[in-house]
Design brief:
The structure is a homodimer.
Chain A: E1 8-12, E2 19-25, E3 28-32, E4 34-37, H1 49-54, E5 60-62, H2 64-69, H3 73-78, H4 82-86, E6 92-94, H5 98-104, E7 108-110, E8 115-118, E9 125-128, H6 130-140, E10 144-146, H7 157-177, E11 184-189, H8 195-205, E12 212-215, H9 224-234, E13 244-246, H10 252-260, E14 265-268, H11 270-276, E15 279-282, E16 285-288, H12 315-323, H13 327-353, H14 357-367
Helix pairs in contact in A: 6-7, 7-8, 10-13, 10-14, 11-13, 12-13, 13-14
């Protein structure tokens, strides 16, 4: 008897496809819609686990490709698994390694069976297959694990079609390779920006009874309009009663637009990456603390924000830290940015519970500009 | 009526010159002996104020030279002073800027009136005088401020003697320049490693009735034996009823050796700097987490340590963070190293209270080696 990953929908919005859910995992219930901060190398950059709890994080993502290469999944297993290793006792999701093999490794050769590649760290040669990816993810021990696939360029029809044919069988191999029954394996629908390929992929992937389904291959270069159009055709192809995960997304406006369309789970490196570049999310967009207009600004980043950074520090101090390249600048902006996205998800859950997601989203999106 | 900075000795050790004291400041009482972490640019590197509280810090040091250049002391004053700016509501000590002018600035010319120098940041020209240093320190608003002097090479007799003659008058100018009565101005005894010059300087400096006295010019290249010999002759020249501050020291063994000799206040960048290089203090010395022998080590840095790092994370995880150059590695090692030194001071205060500082020190020093 394995763990029962039964997704429960607790509220549906009145006018939109937005819904609130509860997804149980061995490390606690995930309330959806949820934003997962990314802890690539078994740490969300610049955050202690206590900081992560403090900003309200529940689900955290870690990257299989990085952890396989360093410190190694066998080592993590011997030290009690990823939760114990990084001291995060909440739910963890690992990706399959496929995306990073294609985006980070030095050279790679894909064949019907898997991918051979060279490490970006030391050039050493490695091979990932569906079976190997599942074995690594079992060693890491996350609560949610992902099927191994290819993330093709979203706007090359022939390539995407060929890629689907190659990697759909990999999903069956992933499912067959699973030996642990306490990890939820999610299948991934690919198909780029092409409705017919999304339909083909969704038909195949949802043909397997899995505890959740992901939408892959977006936020990789297509326009925002193409992304939303693809969500419009893809989300309805996924079963209502299973959680839907939009991989690698996103920016605040993306989160709102995707929750409106019925997506439940998100992850993105933006809040941590932007923080290291001195940028902070605010209602209406974001701004960079390097800007000289903040030199004497005694106000917090956001007067209405309840995070540790905004309840203690001025923009002038944060600007000073950023200009002086102090680690505390990274820490405080990361705290704020992750809090902002998690708080945005909370606001959307509340709006869904009250049947007013549409006016909330309209209000948010009408104010939103990419850079202020 | 200014603030009453009256130092109170609450316990004296039986066999040594060690003593426990209480030094009241506008931002709280400092229990001595105390170790002050260094927050050069208005931040103790990689630590939030909450982290600092968590490791038991009371007194924090900030550097006048750095803050004068960036963000500027006028800006800090306009934003409510350093405590508010960096959100540290405990006691703060600022140095005079003199030491950094001599160690960091690009070019400097010293004359009877002060020092002209170029910023290490942008090459801009600046001038510091005793009056200017006090004005900057009043803008910053620390609880303890330091007299402006030169920190000469400790083993060049003629230079040190000449420097004393030049900078003793500066102390009187600093005292005369003070306009705030809520900051404790400490005088600094110089004199290098030369007993006659230390005596000359101590006679002059303690001739002014100040709330505390510092020993400067040590830990700048002389041997450990020379430092201890200098403490042996200098500490007895300072009044018993005032706090004694050994500037820029030190390593764990230095702290123990100096507390034995009656020093009350310390600061040093070592715990934060070592952390950024992957080194951790332990009873008996320190070790570097980069060492391959920690690859699979599930133990904490120190089994007996009560810090956040040691109560949560394995050496293997910390080694992974250090090798992967993750900010969390800096954060967690900094937490541990500062906790270690502050806990060491607590242990010494307890030993002094029980009249057993000598056996405690013997036990500590017999185990101590610089690198393990």
């Amino acid at each position: 008897m394995g763990f029962d990953f039964k997704f429960e929908i607790v509220a549906k919005d009145r006018e939109t496809a937005g819904r609130n859910g509860r997804f149980p995992t061995p490390h606690g219930i995930i309330q959806t819609p949820v934003f997962a901060p990314v802890g690539t190398q078994a740490t969300v950059k610049a955050m202690t686990p206590a900081n992560l709890r403090g900003v309200g994080a529940t689900l955290v993502l870690a990257n299989t490709y990085h952890l396989y290469l360093r410190p190694g999944d066998e080592l993590v297993r011997k030290l009690g698994g990823l939760h114990r290793f990084m001291q995060w006792d909440g739910p963890i999701l690992t990706d399959s390694g496929g995306f990073q093999v294609f985006s980070l490794s030095q050279t790679r050769r894909i064949d019907a069976d898997g991918v051979t590649f060279q490490s970006h760290l030391d050039g050493s040669r490695h091979r990932l297959t569906p079976e190997k990816s599942i074995a690594i993810q079992e060693n890491l021990g996350a609560d949610i694990i992902m099927a191994f696939d290819e993330c093709p360029p979203s706007n090359e029809y022939d390539y995407v079609k060929e890629s689907l044919a190659r990697t759909h069988p990999w999903l069956e191999r992933c499912a067959a390779a699973q030996t642990r029954d306490d990890q939820a394996l999610f299948g991934i629908v690919q198909g780029g920006i092409f409705p017919d390929l999304r339909a083909e992929s969704a038909a195949f992937v949802t043909g397997l009874d899995l505890p959740g389904y992901a939408i892959g291959g977006l936020a990789v270069g297509e326009t925002k309009a193409e992304m939303l159009a693809t969500l419009d055709v893809t989300v309805p192809l996924l079963p209502r009663e299973k959680p839907r995960y939009l991989m690698g997304v996103g920016e605040p406006e993306d989160l709102v637009n995707a929750v409106l369309r019925g997506v439940d789970i998100f992850d993105c490196v933006s809040p941590t990456r932007l923080a290291r570049h001195g940028s902070a999310y605010v209602w209406g967009g974001r701004f960079n603390l390097r800007n000289a207009r903040f030199t004497r600004d005694a106000a917090p980043i956001d007067e209405t924000c309840g995070c540790y950074t905004c309840t203690h520090f001025s923009r002038a101090y944060l600007r000073h830290l950023v200009k002086a390249n102090e680690i505390l600048g990274h820490i405080l902006l990361t705290i704020h940015n992750i809090y902002f996205l998690i708080h945005l998800m909370e606001q959307m859950r509340e709006a869904i519970g009250q049947g007013r997601l549409r006016p909330f989203a309209d209000h948010f999106l009408s104010a939103y500009e990419e850079s202020l």
